[in-house]
Amino acid sequence: MPVSIGIAVIGAGAIGRTHIETLARMQGLHLAAIVDPMPAAQALAESLNVPCLPDIASLIDSGLARGAVVATPNETHEPVSSALLRAGLPVLLEKPIAESLEAALRLIAVGDETGIPLLIGHHRRHNPIIRAAHDAIKAGAIGDLVMATVTCSLAKPDSYFEAAWRRTPGAGGPLLINLVHEIDLLRHFFGEIAVVQAISSRDRRSFAVEDTAAVCLRFVGGGLATLCISDAAVGPWAWDLSAGENPARFPAHLVTPHLYAGSRAGLSLPDLALWQPPGNPDWTVELQPQRLPVTLADPYEAQLAHFVDLIRDGGTPRVSARDATANLILLDAIRLAAETGQQVAVDLSPLGTES
Ligand SMILES: NC(=O)c1ccc[n+]([C@@H]2O[C@H](COP(=O)([O-])OP(=O)(O)OC[C@H]3O[C@@H](n4cnc5c(N)ncnc54)[C@H](O)[C@@H]3O)[C@@H](O)[C@H]2O)c1
Predict the structure, then answer these.
(1) DSSP letter at 248?
(2) Which of 141, 164, 173, 285 is the most buried (most CB within 10 A)?
């Protein structure tokens, strides 16, 4: 019998609890400890019969874990993850990689220097729906991307914003918290983005961060995309509310918030419907959707399974620190575009040649 791998969860908040529940369902690994100074975390740890430690230093000293999931607020990502990597512990770090480009670059340097696995938690990339869409797009199923539209109407309750970081520029706001996932997917499917334009608004919630934004993108390889996001707009048109990734937290509505239209066919997600004309493209001919085959699986489980492979065997993380930092650069460009009203060219040169 292979020995079960102990994973610590740092930060037992909303997503930390998802990781804790996911770990409990999986074979070959177990929750080794919770690290979180709050009383609620202590109570949770007691109910699960695992140690609750106040900080990273205690975890490192304890030797309880072979890897750690970091699910703390954004501004702690870099110091917490750096300390773990320097202690030789592989890290699955929640997105966004950090609260700033500077912090992300420091973390990349620590990852390079230590050589310890660092996987960034863009969990959707582990979803079989995304993997099937990626394979189809790369195989030319839709031809060249011409246009894409992504919507994210995520009406969050007021209680969500009680955590101050969710209202704070550089840490909260739907661009950094939610749109980062959409940007990550678009880059994954269609390659790097050359230029962005954006308008953002604080009209609904009056926080220091935006509550709503409309973004336009031009891809390096050609094609345009629009994205509309709001944490105050009611509607089911969001990946989180349609893909069924986290049924304990979100309902799964039968809508398609991702629409990609290519030179040959269209593709919608998460239903994986390929809209292909019988002959040459002709807007007068009815299109029949064909569902691409997929075997559904929980992306959080698949992500943890990949993390365990990295702990055991090393290898290349499916979402590297550099890749996730490119998403952060995109978000900075979007914010600058919204502030200035100007088009912003995306500069990935801080990532060096490996991006
Ligand atoms: N992948 C996803 O779908 C997804 C979803 C939600 C959140 N996230 C990300 O996960 C992170 C956490 O978000 P959340 O909504 O769960 O936050 P949260 O506020 O609900 O929970 C954060 C927890 O971290 C604890 N904490 C803070 N500093 C700590 C430290 N130094 N050491 C140990 N514990 C500490 C807090 O006490 C709290 O319990 C954010 O970076 C967020 O962007 C990812």
Answers:
(1) T
(2) 173
